[in-house]
Write a structure and sequence with these properties.
Helix content is 69%, strand content 0%. By secondary structure, it is mainly alpha-helical. The chain has one domain. One of its GO terms (cellular component) is plasma membrane.
Length: 417
């Protein structure tokens, strides 16, 4: 083993990914700016009571007819997520609101202990990794693309993340691909594998509830199907992306010859598949962000600012971490044969940090929209919960424990008799 973990040179498609994500974010900002409401263009600063509330504290506009919420007050009576008084989009926020959102995002990222949450998510990701691989490899094995797709996925990991992560994943994935029961596993083992893989989705949902300042209130018979559905959507997206990455080079040429496609069509496919891959990745993150927390969010957006930032941060952080490992790290000297495992775990931790940062940004952008509309959201986000039954039951049980504790204190531990 080399003294240092090697890292392959950055691929050309990586530059395309970074540029594409940046372009999408820039395009989203420009389109929202052009489509801003006429009321915001009357004076250039806006002439609404919302703006006066933010810029003229000496003569504030009257607050909305909402009581100042207590820190522990249930948000079931919160305003509608699509309240028309709020800015249409986070990109319609004023400068002062944007600065507040950025500061609040950084502060909440620390207050919510997202580094610890990312560590917990890394643990659940490891537990869910191999059940998820069973499902993905089984799906691809039906089409006879298990081996080729495995090489494509490992090459992506090699290009994007630390090179030693490939050594950690290659052997178990290879065993799954070469197993004669790969197709059979799709039929027999998919339910159990999905159940195990959904553990990560459950953990991510709990982290999102902390970010959105809400307790989980959905009963298990309602929550578990959602988690399984999100897991299935994510794994199907991964399988589609892996399949598209596999159809390249000689395989793409063979498919093109079989259907009579010319060189121009093959070139168009080799270029056009990357935007499709990016769309699937963004869609998977958007579904994860939208369905995980126990809050009724504003209408679903296939791309949010937080999701785009999370993916961009993840790509840049992965490349930076790989560069550090290849040039400055000494994991092989310190951990020996375990170096690949340690590096892979750190990479998963960085991945979860990026996802949580994007979620924090989305939550604080929603807070900024509410504050700019005069809604009391400085303490708690005013989004109604999807369900509060479990939270209310837990609260009732806590009150019972308090009463029992009070009775025990007053009796000094003596029996009632």
């Amino acid at each position: 083993m080399n003294d240092q973990v090697e890292m392959t040179r950055g691929p050309s498609w990586l530059k395309w990914w970074i540029g594409a994500i940046g372009g999408l974010l820039a395009g989203l900002l420009v389109s929202r700016w052009r489509n801003r409401s006429p009321r915001d263009s009357v004076t250039g600063l806006g002439a609404t009571s919302v703006e006066r509330t933010l810029t003229a504290p000496a003569h504030p506009a009257p607050d909305r007819d909402l009581p100042e919420p207590d820190a522990n007050e249930d948000t079931k009576d919160a305003p509608d997520p699509e309240d028309p008084s709020k800015p249409d989009s986070p990109t319609d926020l004023k400068k002062r609101s944007v600065l507040f959102v950025l500061r609040k995002t950084a502060r909440e990222f620390s207050t919510d202990q997202c580094t610890d949450l990312a560590a917990a998510l890394t643990y659940y990701a490891v537990l869910s990794l191999f059940p998820a691989l069973v499902v993905v490899v089984s799906l691809l094995g039906v089409f006879g693309q298990g081996q080729r797709t495995t090489e494509a996925v490992l090459q992506i990991v090699d290009d994007l993340g630390p090179a030693s992560a490939v050594d950690t994943l290659r052997a178990p994935i290879q065993q799954l691909v070469e197993s004669p029961s790969a197709g059979f596993a799709l039929i027999v083992g998919i339910a159990g594998a999905l159940w195990s893989a959904s553990g990560y989705i459950g953990a991510f949902g709990r982290a999102m509830n902390r970010i959105y300042e809400v307790e989980e209130g959905r009963p298990v018979w309602k929550l578990r199907p959602i988690q399984l559905a999100v897991t299935l959507v994510g794994l199907v997206a991964v399988a589609v992306v892996a399949f598209m990455l596999a159809v390249s080079g000689p395989l793409a040429q063979a498919v093109g010859d079989a259907i009579g496609a010319g060189e121009v069509a093959l070139t168009a496919w080799n270029i056009g598949r990357w935007p499709i891959v990016l769309i699937f990745v963004i869609l998977a993150v958007a579904v994860l962000y939208y369905s995980s927390p126990n809050v009724k969010q504003p209408k679903f957006r296939w791309i949010s600012i937080g999701a785009g930032v999370a993916i961009l941060v993840w790509v840049l952080a992965s490349v930076g971490f790989g560069f550090y490992v290849a040039n400055f790290g000494s994991y092989n000297k310190t951990y020996g044969a375990l170096a690949g495992v340690i590096v892979f775990l750190l990479w998963l931790w960085i991945t979860n940090l990026a996802l949580l940062f994007g979620a924090e940004l989305d939550a604080e952008l929603e807070r900024g929209r509410q504050l700019q509309a005069g809604i009391h959201a400085e303490r708690d986000l005013q989004l109604p919960p999807r369900d509060s039954r479990v939270a209310l039951k837990n609260q009732a049980k806590e009150e019972q424990d308090v009463e029992r504790g009070r009775a025990l204190r007053e009796s000094r531990g003596q029996d009632d008799g």
